[in-house]
Design brief:
single chain; mainly beta; Elongation Factor Tu (Ef-tu), domain 3; Jelly Rolls; 2 domains; ten-stranded antiparallel beta sheet
């Protein structure tokens, strides 16, 4: 049985803003199928019927009240939030993404003799993607690089979505282009998805992919300029 500790939770971004910087203590997500009570006269048991509508509620608790530039407070203070993308990986392997309008509860907790904390609740009026894979872990880089390859076990034929989060980018970096490549054998690599040039962080992008996605994938990051950039990327297969 696979197990993941807290150190494996290395990705939590909202439109590219790194929320883990506020030291989140707990994180939970709850997908639900909305049901209607259809109990009628003469029924001896309560009857619930799915309406065909789903929702997901996400909560993060115990983090610090972070007022830094592009920090938690600046990102979440205005409510309700417009359409945004919340992306997370609880184990560094699986990738989840909630897309759509976020109605947010943002609670700041001040206590005498203790650090001020903040809790956040998201109710997403959109969709939850739960079948993703991390290709590029959230890491700092200073030069152009190619990630380790990821073996997905088999090819797929229905396309998908490639995603990229740039959470930090030094002013000396004048451009960054990331791409996801795929191969049937981890040797013959070809481009699968190329993201638009990034000139400033935070930045979140998604690129639709059609057709066959081969068994193996990798990420290539091309840096123009000097400095450090922090990037994470993944792939959702349909």
């Amino acid at each position: 049985m696979a197990k993941a500790g807290s150190a494996a939770f290395t990705l939590l971004t909202l439109d590219g803003v790194n929320l883990l910087g506020a030291k989140v203590k707990e994180f939970a997500w709850k997908p639900e199928a909305v049901q209607e009570d259809t109990t009628g006269l003469g029924d001896s048991w309560i009857d619930q019927t799915p309406t065909g509508i789903r929702r997901v509620t996400v909560t993060q608790t115990g983090q610090y009240f972070d007022t830094s530039l592009n920090g938690l407070h600046e990102t979440l203070a205005a409510m309700p939030l417009p359409a945004k993308t919340l992306t997370w990986s609880p184990d560094g392997v699986l990738l989840f993404q909630a897309r759509g309008t976020l109605t947010t509860g943002y609670e700041v907790l001040a206590s005498n003799g203790a650090l001020t904390k903040a809790n956040v609740t998201y109710t997403i009026s959109g969709a939850l993607d739960a079948n993703g894979s991390v290709i590029q872990p959230a890491e700092d880089h200073t030069v152009t690089w190619t990630s380790a390859s990821v073996d997905h076990g088999a090819a797929s034929t229905l396309g998908g979505t490639a995603v990229q989060s740039v959470t930090a980018q030094a002013v000396g970096i004048t451009g960054f282009v990331g791409k996801v490549q795929h191969a049937p054998d981890a040797i013959a690599w070809v481009d699968l998805a190329t993201f638009a040039n990034v000139t400033a962080a935070p930045n979140q992008q998604s690129v639709a992919v059609v057709g066959t996605i081969n068994r193996y994938t990798q990420f290539v990051g091309t840096i123009t300029g000097t400095g450090t950039i922090r990037v994470a990327a993944g792939l959702f297969r349909t």
